[in-house]
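Consider the tokenized backbone below.
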């Protein structure tokens, strides 16, 4: 019984740490770049796009398809970086505790 109570206390502490981590993820930004730097997408680790930068050389009607492809590539790279950042934060938060899956509601 004492082990269960200790685990529940630990889970409650983790939940408050997770709330703080969620706030931190909202301010943690990553950048995806494509086309050798011609396009960049900046987003938070919560997947909210904050900015898009496009080199002026791509602002031509004949470059539209290239620009579209580079935007997709840059956004996907930024999303992958954001996912890695979230995983790293989660591992740092829960590492080594041996909590059962789903205990924190994720």
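A designed sequence for it:
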């Amino acid at each position: 019984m004492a082990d269960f109570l200790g685990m529940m206390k630990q889970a409650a502490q983790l939940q408050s740490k997770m709330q703080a981590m969620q706030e931190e993820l909202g301010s943690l930004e990553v950048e995806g770049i494509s086309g050798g730097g011609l396009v960049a997408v900046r987003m938070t680790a919560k997947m909210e796009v904050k900015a898009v930068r496009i080199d002026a050389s791509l602002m031509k009607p004949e470059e539209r398809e290239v620009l579209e492809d580079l935007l997709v590539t840059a956004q996907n790279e930024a999303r992958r970086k954001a996912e890695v950042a979230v995983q790293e934060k989660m591992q740092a938060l829960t590492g080594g505790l041996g909590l059962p899956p789903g205990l924190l509601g994720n």
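The chain has a mean pLDDT of 86.
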